[in-house]
Write a structure and sequence with these properties.
Order of helices and strands of chain A: HHHEEEEHEH
CATH topology of the largest domain in chain A: Arc Repressor Mutant, subunit A
CATH superfamily of the largest domain in chain A: Winged helix-like DNA-binding domain superfamily/Winged helix DNA-binding domain
CATH class of the largest domain in chain A: Mainly Alpha
Number of strands of chain A: 5
CATH architecture of the largest domain in chain A: Orthogonal Bundle
Structural class of chain A: alpha+beta
Oligomer: homodimer
Amino acid sequence: MNYSKQREVVLDALINNVIHPTAEKLYSIIQIEYPEVSKATLYRNLNQLAEAGIIKKIDGLEAPAHFDHNTHPHYHFICEKCGRVFDVSSDVAKDVVSKTEEETGFKVTSHEIVFKGLCKDCQE
Amino acid sequence: MNYSKQREVVLDALINNVIHPTAEKLYSIIQIEYPEVSKATLYRNLNQLAEAGIIKKIDGLEAPAHFDHNTHPHYHFICEKCGRVFDVSSDVAKDVVSKTEEETGFKVTSHEIVFKGLCKDCQE
DNA sequence: CGTAAAATGAGAATTATTATCAAGTTTTGA
DNA sequence: TCAAAACTTGATAATAATTCTCATTTTACG
């Protein structure tokens, strides 16, 4: 991957501004300071950075995709009321991969858990 | 929900023919015997049936959506080579909901786990 | 029956994303 | 250093999946 200013801007926007943003959200943030960054470049870079393991595209949420700069293993919770996405520790499903491999005979290379429900704020 | 022939056809196609089909796959199956069923009707009915809890829209796979007539709790495994979707027993992640609720203080109403990797056939 | 509510087909519209391609930028190595 | 190769970009067209619109038809029920 060669250096480009645009890629730096995209990565910085993801790291410094919001947690779990969509591409559209990042686009609007980036537009303010760097209106020269096009949408194609944004999508291209998000995909390349995810491919390289530098960021993560969160599977399991319906479109639009959300992105995460935290690449450590963890799960996600989406609040059905406010729509926010929260992190959930990977401790909640220990051994889930080994158990699945045992049970199925399949080789698991990745997995994602998405919980839906009501976050603390929205329960009130 | 009122009765309609089309809804019956959609549900039957899902139950009797393939496992975990996409809307497109169902459409092509239905077309053979019931070419009068339109795509709008297919999507409408899949959503309504899912809403009513009669079938399930599998979250966590990227588009296109896959549907499941098995509404009992279970997870899914998608083979990265052949693309097939397999069921995984809910035993592989016991207590995952209670643990998550404990850890986060959130109320979990549903969750889905999607594993990716290689199925038995594709490991060879 | 008669009518209100629900469902339909056809196709337009929408949303998110990817592809195309000519032009600009970065890297390479002679 | 400098030119060629490889990579990246912006603008926009294209695609894919799904939802919406609306005039017409079907269903439920008093």
